[in-house]
Design a protein that fits this description.
The structure is a homodimer of 204-residue chains. Chain A is mostly helical and 204 residues long. Chain A has 10 helices and 2 strands; from the N terminus they run H-H-H-H-H-H-H-H-E-H-H-E. In chain A, helix 1 (6-24) crosses helix 7 and helix 9 (154-175) runs antiparallel to helix 10 (178-194). Chain A binds a DNA duplex (18 and 18 nucleotides) through helix 3.
DNA sequence: GTCTATAATGAGATAGAC
DNA sequence: GTCTATCTCATTATAGAC
């Protein structure tokens, strides 16, 4: 193996760990499985990272920092109404989940793990703060193309949006019922449109 | 230890396992921790249950069979409107989560575990079918005291309700933000009321 | 810095006395 | 049926040669 700085090895290990967790679950993400995925020897692991727990912290940091919803913004301007925009955004999100279900499961497993681990206990709050910020960004992005104003505080609506996305994901992971999930999205889109004032007069 | 039939030991072990998982997490629910909680010897475990995996199946069966929302029905008739009924029901549900957060976390952990385990892969679907049935029951129970009809299919609305409850729980477990959760409930209650036709004429 | 070899621990499961 | 004692294995982590 060529000489690679320990810091680079560390991020490579975190990425490999995420791959393993997405594919086989958190319980299967042993140090051996992780180094095998990263193509390193077992000893390299502890040279680069003090412990497995430390690496898991890195993994959580990694997923918290991920972008995520940037791809959804262009969809919003293409929609003819708020209802349609909400429908498209949620559908696109669910499609993303369907494309790689293991990755979303990995998120939930990492969150639950962090909640149970003293040193990581506060990371889920940051994770959800990030989710909420992304949803706020999305709601703001929807205002201009549709000339609308939200009738309720955007942070509150953002949290509802994240709530729906999470719940949608959990139920779909459990029963894989595409049609039922699509109907949930229809209703959720109705609900979100309820909170929008459309047809706001364009200022001269 | 007195002589207890193996079948009784088995359910006792499943209950003990659920206690351990709620308190310390699934990863900490080793056979040793479970028998300690149940007050049995380690050997009794494998006399009553073939393997740890088999017991976890029992635990999932256990939580799937649980009642859950029966306590929410009386709330519905006490409310003055559909919006109020939804608000009270969701608030009561979240209070229940707050009372024993570990138990709800245990649910999520067991679901994720089942999804990753070949033999248990289909159990989450049953679990969510049960959740949805409970929500349907709840929505039906709301019709008579409020003289209302739902403007959308009840199963669809039920799934949305479960979606909101799940998402609400996940976010609260992560950030423990009571006020934000309460605001999410307010918006969700508005949304649910949107799907109700209230003041339906009482037939003579 | 990187490897092989090996501790040290804790897990699930079992043997065999009583 | 129930117990103590033990087996076997996989895990994290480390020692020490190169």
């Amino acid at each position: 193996m060529p000489r690679i700085p320990a810091t680079e090895r560390r991020v490579a290990l975190a990425r490999a760990a995420l791959v393993v967790i997405a594919r086989d679950g958190l319980a299967a993400a042993t140090t051996r499985a992780i180094v095998a995925e990263a193509g390193m020897s077992l000893a390299s692991f502890h040279y680069a990272v003090p412990s497995r727990e430390e690496l898991l912290r890195d993994v959580v940091d990694l997923v918290v920092a991920e972008e995520g919803t940037a791809a959804l913004v262009p969809l919003l301007s293409r929609a003819g109404s708020v209802r349609e925009a909400a429908r498209l955004a949620l559908t696109a999100y669910l499609d993303h989940v369907k494309q790689d279900p293991g990755h979303e499961q990995a998120m939930f497993e990492l969150t639950q793990h962090a909640l149970r681990t003293p040193g990581l206990r506060d990371l889920p709050a940051e994770q959800y703060e990030r989710y909420h910020a992304l949803a706020i960004h999305l709601l703001n992005a929807a205002t201009s193309p549709h000339h609308l104003e939200w009738r309720v505080p955007i942070p509150d609506l953002a949290r509802l949006l994240v709530t729906v996305a999470d719940g949608l994901t959990l139920a779909w992971l459990a029963d894989r019922d595409d049609a039922a999930a699509a109907r949930t999205i229809e209703l959720a889109a109705d609900a979100i449109a309820l909170f929008a004032d459309e047809h706001v007069a364009v200022s001269a």
